[in-house]
Design brief:
Distance between the termini: 59 Å
Order of helices and strands: EEEEEEEEEEEEEEEEEEEEH
CATH class of the largest domain: Mainly Beta
Number of helices: 1
Oligomer: single chain
Strand content: 25-35%
CATH architecture of the largest domain: Orthogonal Prism
Structural class: mainly beta
Shape: elongated
Radius of gyration: 28 Å
Number of domains: 3
Largest sheet: 4 strands, antiparallel
Strand order of the largest sheet: 1-10-11-12
CATH topology of the largest domain: Agglutinin, subunit A
Number of strands: 20
CATH superfamily of the largest domain: Bulb-type lectin domain
């Protein structure tokens, strides 16, 4: 916590930090703040700095992320300053003194400046009330406990590229026009998919409406990520069931796609065959262990 009686000015100068950060940026960390959230100046193009909150712990090969920015699209240069004044205002000024960003909290009763453990940067009064908080002005990221308010000023706006830190073409806004159906539920289905349903009592016939599906044909993941999309042994591509594996190669898919059941567990009563160009839906979540085909067959036989 930085009280107004101990105001500070931080000058954007000196050596850059050593740790790996998002966008392969250069950065300077402000010393009054500690991990996992730390206020920094960072740049992805020379002499064009953004004041931002960094999230991450100091570990080998750990990428630290930028979760909030004060001045996207309006960068500052070397020797820019961040000042917390006795009047309670937090001001980012460029090297020539031009004010680039501020909290507009001068003479409003601010007694302290703090970065909270949840990543919310706040200016508060003597009773602990927040007179300004970064959670009210997100950039492109929502942290745990942070919200988008319907009809409020906050929204998420994408960054245009990893190199250029200006607003991109995509935004996420909470519309004030509410979806006034209170009879809704979220269900984890028997196929492993997550679906959201809502009920409209004014509709005759099919009143239950499926309004959201976590894995569907229009999503990046697609229905092939569902364990049982094409049965236990069917092959899935682009959310479609396309083939059944057989010892002689691939055949057309059907609901009866399965392998013949072994008459016994004796190794002489069953065998294995290799499928080329096929992976498992779990491969994106776990790498598994590299093994020879013969060792894999041996483990399966003993199972």
């Amino acid at each position: 916590v930085v009280p107004t009686s101990q105001t500070f000015t931080y000058v954007n100068e000196g050596d850059f930090g050593d740790y790996i950060v998002e966008y392969d940026a250069n950065y300077r960390a402000l010393t009054p703040f500690n991990n996992p959230f730390q206020l920094c100046f960072y740049n992805t193009t020379p002499n064009a700095f953004t004041l931002a909150l960094r999230m991450g712990t100091v570990r080998s090969e750990s990428l630290m992320r930028w979760v909030w920015e004060a001045n996207r699209g309006n960068p500052v240069r070397e020797n820019a300053t961040l000042t917390f004044g006795t009047d309670g205002n937090l001001v980012l000024a460029d090297a020539d003194g031009r004010v680039v960003w501020q909290t507009n909290t001068a003479n409003k009763g601010v007694v302290g400046f703090q970065v909270l453990p949840n990543g919310n940067m706040v200016l508060h009064d003597g009773k602990g009330n927040y007179l300004w908080q970064s959670f009210d002005s997100p950039t492109d990221t929502l942290l745990v406990g942070q919200t988008l308010r319907a009809g409020g000023p906050n929204k998420l706006v994408s960054r245009i590229s990893e190199v250029s830190n200006v607003d991109g073409p995509y935004s996420l806004v909470m519309e004030p026009k509410g979806y006034n159906n209170t009879l809704s539920y979220l269900r984890l289905g028997i196929d492993g998919n997550l679906r959201f349903y809502t009920y409209n009592p004014n509709v005759q016939g099919v009143a239950w409406e499926l309004v959201y599906t976590f894995l569907d044909r229009d999503s990046m993941e697609g229905e092939c990520q569902l364990p049982g999309r094409c049965g236990n042994f069917g092959l899935c591509e682009d959310s479609q069931c396309v083939a059944c594996p057989t010892p002689n190669g691939l055949s057309g898919w059907s609901k009866d796609c399965d392998v013949k059941k072994a008459t016994s567990c004796k190794a002489s009563d069953f065998g294995y065959y290799k499928l080329e160009g096929v992976d498992h839906f779990m491969i994106k979540y776990t790498r598994g262990d590299q093994t020879k085909q013969s060792d894999c067959e041996s483990k399966c036989t003993k199972n």
